[in-house]
Amino acid sequence: MAQWYPGRKLSWARLSVVLVVIAGLISGGIYAWTRVEDSQVAAERTPWFDAYVDVTATPMFPFESPGEDGQKNVVLSFIVADSADACEPTWGGYYNLDEAEHSLDLDRKLQRLRNLGGSAMVSFGGQANHDIAFDCADEDRLVESYSEVIDRYDLASIDMDIEGTFLSSEEGVARQAAAIRKVQDAQKDGLDVWLTLPVAPDGLTYEGLRAIRAYLKAGVDLAGVNVMTMNYNSERENDFYPAVESSLEATHSQLRSLYQEIDAPIGDATAWSRVSATPMIGQNDTRKDVFTLEDAQKLSALAHEHGMSRMSMWSLNRDRECDANWPDPKTVSDNCSGVVQEKGDFSKILRKHRSGAISQVAEEVENDGPVELVEDDPETSPYPIWSEVTAYPAETKVVWHRNVYESKWWTEGDQPDQAAENGSQPWRLLGPVLPGEKPIERPKLPADTYAKWDKDAEYRRGDRVMFDGDGYEAKWYSAGDSPDAALVQPQDSPWRALTDAEIAKVTGSSNEASTGANGSGAAVQADSSSDASGEGSGNGGA
Q1: Residue 344 exposed, middle or buried by CB count within 10 Å (0-12, 13-18, 19+)
Q2: In CA terms, which of 168, 248, 348, 355 is 20 to 30 Å from 324?
Q3: In sequence order, what are the beta bridge partners of 194?
Q4: Residue 460, burial from CB neighbour count under 10 angstroms (0-12, 13-18, 19+)
Q5: How far apart are CA 353 and CA 188, in angstroms?
Q6: What is the DSSP letter of 484?
Q7: Residue 340 contacts by C-beta under 8 Å, 6 or more apart in sequence?
Q8: Do 334 and 403 sit in the same domain of this protein?
Q9: What CA–CA distance (Å, rounded) separates 449 from 467?
């Protein structure tokens, strides 16, 4: 054992060794502490899986009724600018927020989902239409529009889908980022902001990186970046999934570099927690790109391994096998995947290991179902009160025990909250009557719009008449058949009542996408399949 003698000097060589050892111990301690902090930050959120729902696609997807093992976390898409007013938010360009409430019962369906333990965020943008910030140069109105959507739907999370033409607009994206910063600052309960961007096998594109920089420069606190792992235009089908993995690895590295640029470095685990993937399930727009069930299992395992807090998919509308008469499996559909599967297979696989939910702010509304025999008040009910002696055609909406139901087919005497005698329930529960609701005013036809029905006249398909103040259209040749039979025996009657949307079109009413016949709420709209398919929709169209 060496001894220390007074007056003995420590050589520079020995001193250097000591300093190196001390520095190593200090840096090692800092590194270990940083790794612990990194892991803690990354683990702050319970991982969840959500799925996009195209709100305006037809047929409408019943996201409000997920069932026991269905998908309960959804991303409602897409909020875009009104074609007549660039600063006005609409759903897909078809409905403003009030019209979506009346025509789609969107507010009610969202509340029902939440009553059943589900969660939701709203996606702005997409590929097929323009985001509000694209042409809206009025800063105050832009902030108001984003806030209007967030406040109306009690959101604590939003998804900014930036792609297509808007992604190329540096000025528009910067304008959007500045507005979202103001919106985020004003939300007392906080607001998670996710950027959804296209990605290549080697990572985010130049324009995608520029969009993130714009948000960071504006001071937006990003929850994360969701990349659309789809449409890589692979040369061979077996090249597709490896491209998904490489794009996520590259995005992870790019995200760390972007935060390093603003002197706010994040660790490896934190970066992974801020990376999300949205595959286009089944057949992609590019013919050789097919995301299979096996790919979903691989992606689910990868996301779990890396601690990705969010996972998603495009779309819940498509999570089922196409019908046998679908002409070409390589042709993208907006309501089926194009691969062999059971309904809901993709969402079940991708949500494995993910028990969390989307952050949201929502007030409680009385649970669905007749907990007590509530007396329904016509003055506070959006639709007529159900009556045992009234016949209801398909897609008619009624109120019963403070809940709204829609008939799936013609029905009479079947109480909405009880199963029919044959075990088949003709009513579908849409959700509770919301606070402050009033009867929805239906458009009326002026008395002289069409000729009155004449029992001695002959009518052919497409002819329209008036009967007891209501409009009817002939479905086929008719002579002597009274139109009122259409309300009692719709399958056998040669007449059908005009929908509210058709009446609104004739009268020039502003509520053109209103409710269906007899207050049905069945919107008649342009087929939005081009918007909802991978070819035209936001995520699917990357």
Answers
A1: middle
A2: 348
A3: 159, 224
A4: exposed
A5: 31
A6: G
A7: 321
A8: no
A9: 11
H helix and E strand count, the chain: 14, 24
- What pLDDT, on the 0 to 100 scale, is given for residue 30? 46
Half-sphere exposure of 311 (CA within 13 A, CB side): 32
Which residues of the chain, if any, have pLDDT below 70?
1-34, 36, 41-42, 362-374, 419-423, 487-489, 509-542
**363 part of a folded domain:** no
User: What are the Cα distances from residue 337, in Å, to 229, 284, 292?
Assistant: 16, 9, 9
| DSSP notation for 301-338 | HHHHHHT-SEE--B-GGG-SPPPTT-S-TTS--SS--S
**Selection from 521, 335, 357 nearest residue 439 by Cα:** 521
Q: Which residue has the tokens 């009346």?
A: 102
- For 165, 169, 299, 312, 454, the CA distances from 252, given in Å and listed in that order, are 25, 24, 15, 17, 72
**Whether residue 254 sits in one domain with residue 298:** yes
Q: Hey, how many other C-beta atoms are within 10 angstroms of the C-beta on 296?
A: 24
Sign, CA dihedral 500-501-506-507, equals positive
Which three-class secondary structure state does DSSP give residue 159? Answer: strand
In terms of Cβ atoms closer than 10 Å to its own Cβ (0-12, 13-18, 19+), residue 13 is: exposed
- 521, 401 contact by CB (below 8 A): no
- Rounded CA gap, 475 and 393, in Å? 15
Structure tokens, 68? 């026991």
Query: Cα separation of 493 and 477, whole Å?
Result: 11
Count of all residues that appear for the chain in the document: 542
Q: What is the pLDDT of residues 220-264, one digit of tens each?
A: 999 999 999 999 999 887 899 999 999 999 999 999 999 999 999
Q: Verify that 289 and 422 share a domain, yes or no.
A: no
Contact 521, 406 (CB under 8 A): yes
Domain extent, residue 117, equals: 48-350
Q: And the tokens for 250? A: 């590259």
Number of domains in the chain: 2
Tokens standing for 60? 């409408």
pLDDT at 534: 36
Closest residue by Cα to residue 229 from 272, 253, 251, 200: 200
| pLDDT tens column, 74-90 | 999 999 999 999 999 99
Q: Are residues 167 and 257 in the same domain?
A: yes
CA-CA distance, 503 to 393, in Å (whole number)?
18
Q: What is the DSSP string of 7-26?
A: TPPPPHHHHHHHHHHHHHHH
Domain-terminating residue out of 335, 350, 365: 350
> Across the strands, what pairs with 314?
280
Q: Provide the pLDDT for residue 293.
A: 98
Interstrand relation of 470-474 and 290-291 (parallel, antiparallel or unpaired): unpaired
- DSSP state, 287? T
